Amino acid sequence: METARLARNPHDRWIGGVCSGIARWLGWNPDMVRIVYVLASILSAAFPGTFVYILLWILMPLEE
After folding, report:
1. Could you say which DSSP state residue 8 is in?
2. What pLDDT, on a 0 to 100 scale, did the predictor assign at position 2?
């Protein structure tokens, strides 16, 4: 079984495709990853979560 590469998903994205790409890489539901990410961001006063998302958006390659 081939494992998915960590990359942003351009076909299932709300903003940059970061959460969808992480979900595909982990084999999880994208909506579940989005909910967990939003909750983690809110509980960490939003700034670190926003910064990490922008950083991942820049660093993660776009899926081909």
Report:
1. B
2. 58
